[in-house]
Specification:
This protein has 812 residues and is mainly beta. 7% of the residues lie in helices and 35% in strands. The chain has 7 helices and 50 strands. The strands form 12 sheets. Strands 3, 24, 25, 26, 27, 28, 29, 30 and 31 form a 9-stranded mixed sheet that branches. Strands 32-1-37-42-43 form a 5-stranded antiparallel sheet, with no helix packed on it. The longest helix has 25 residues. The radius of gyration is 29 Å and the shape is globular.
Amino acid sequence: MFIRACSTGRLRRAALTAGVTAATLVMSTLVAAPARADGAVYDPIPESQIQSRLGLVLQEYASFPQSTPNPAPVDQRLVRKARINTISELPDGSGRRAVPDLNGNLYFVANGTPHVYLDVAATFAPQFFSGRGLGQGFGYVAFHPDFGRNGRFYTIHTEQASLATRTPDYAQPNTIYQAVITEWTATDPAADTFAGTHREVLRIGFGGQIHGVQEINFNPTAKPHDPDYGMLYLAVGDGGQGARNGDPQNMGLPHGKLLRIDPRGTNAPNGRYGIPADNPFVGRAGALGEIYAVGFRDPHRFSWDRATGRMYLGHIGEHAVESIYEVRAGDNFGWSEREGNWVFDKTATNPCDKLYPLPADDAKYGYTYPVAAYDHDPAASWNCTSDVGVAVAGGFVYRGQSVPALKGKYVFGDLVDGRVLYTEADEMRRGAGLAPIHRLALYTTAGGLVRMQDLSSPGAPGDPNRVDLRFGTDAAGELYIVAKANGKIWKVVDTKTVAEGKVGRTKVVHTGGAQNWAPVTPSKWRFEGDQVILAEAGVSRPGPRRPFEYAILNKGPAWSSVQIDARVRLDEPVEVTNRDVIIVFGWQSDMQYYYAHLSTDNTIYPHNGIFKVNNADRERIDHQWNGRSRGANPAITDADWHKVRVVHLPATGEIADLLVRLGCSQVVRGTLRSPDGEHLATAGLFNLTDKASAQRVRDRIRQLLDERQGRFRGMAAGDGTEALTTAAARVGWQVRGHYIAYCLVVRADGGAVPAGDTAVRDIIFDLIELHLDKGVLERRAVGGSAVQPTAKATEGTGTQGGNATPDELPGN
């Protein structure tokens, strides 16, 4: 075990235990599972979301006044401060933002201050309807890309069918409400309040009060004279009917479809909009020409990647699967024959037996499957008929400039509990399986680690744990996070690395041996070489609920800030009341300490996570438990050795545990100073399992770089080389076979590296090309390494701190 920490006069020691019994953690809520059908799938996506060390810094941008639904709601989920649904920037160069509130107002926001631009509810009273169904009311606004000149924008609102005075253009049987698309034309587009005219474009009737028209929008990547310029997309849900009928696959209905229309055309059946000639189903017998894509339950939000033009859509699932799709013209996403990558059985007599594996001949159906997805992970006692409380909120691929660490990431979340997630856009590839999903940490501008519930619950009526999360962007591509709960919007202004900070220079190594440890019960422990082994199960002790057995490290000084690096394992895979691995830190007494619980089987209380014992029963203090079935991830469940790092920074209260499972079998690294003393360099090798893994890491090299600290994540500088942790850097890397060679160079004085600095170029070239590639790797190949390097290396380069451009570095 390796510890790097600060000395302090207070007693705070690190401890390690492998094998603490979990008997006391079996909870009374464990119940017998319902009878299950052969072949049915109950855990469709066993992979857990990966807790990222990347955190978003959120700055409050705007707060909105109280609004109320009409009629008064029965469903308490509609009781919110303000049911704000998104934020966007007007495409007129004014810098104004637009925010729709489902309860009726369209707000414009200037310099963080909102004011009412248009009262949609009053315009359509008494038919306007927002008090039933989570999406009812004034749902969305889309501004024509030439709004600054033509003043046109479009809204979607709902009307109670029994009060409506117009007949829907399309409708399900027994229509309860109608969704209306309206075109507005402002007399003066620059005015701060609306004056002008409006006309109805399209009206759709729904037989249920959920899953209506969710979003309408224009493609922001389309330019004038492009075929997609000025075309309006409409995400139309299935009205809550698709689980029982075939409407989402019925090409004669708009329900469960993504539509694409020309709002200024006239060739639609009602004559009030146009059907673009290049739509994929134009001319097909029995199909509506408006349809762009098919097979949706609740197509909640969609957006375009401004760099690639690809459209991504967040789709809320029925039984278990929340999906992100890449959408192309003519796609069929399968609902209600498919949910995610699974067969959906509409006729199942047991409500738990809804999902089944795809058939062998699935390709003949032509369905398109998600590029990313997560499942509901219900509690063991879930009866399969109630709402688990999980729903995806689609987001955006970040292409702004202010937060470089987010570039190329599709940021989205869960609208109920407010988790903020991301996937790499270049990993969301159709037909290539599901891209990994990472969970982002969140910080205030003061540096406090928070959850969205912490930000959205103050002042929130109704359920304080329900965030009602949404996302938005501005014209520059900067990202905003919206919460209906308390009617606030935050802007993402920066990133921060979880538990990133100095822990001092005191080091303790070679910690094996009984003389270095003080166990709770010495007779239960063995010390073999560098291993610390709990050989017998612990026994419950009087006092608060806490780990039964652990050992305290006596070697070295007392600690405050600490980084613990260790390898840990179980002697056999976990079972319900079997073994666990924990690391104890911040120890003051048997009644006061922290511990990181690293193992779980997820069939009992999900106890993996960070806990505090403070003269009371242990208390979970991490933010990663989903409240039902999953604890912090990743978690040890097998009998393999795992690398673990725990960082505790009492000054900031940050704690992070990182289980290294990146497939990197070896890290070679050296730090040196140039002969003239002006530059510091750190260089080395990553040894991956195979060429594909090395190329994958190469493609994501910027994730391995700490964009704030100018170094590879988690690789601390040595004495006298602190500039490597703070100064802006030049970085080069190269893939050869299953190896990645890298080099990072900074000025020793911490100053900026001038553009065209030939000394830096020479250092990177010499270390990567001559020493690591031509020297170390070729010698390994001659010596018979497991996989010999390729004949030709592939290069990549990067910069830190914004003081260099990639074409100034070797290999470009």
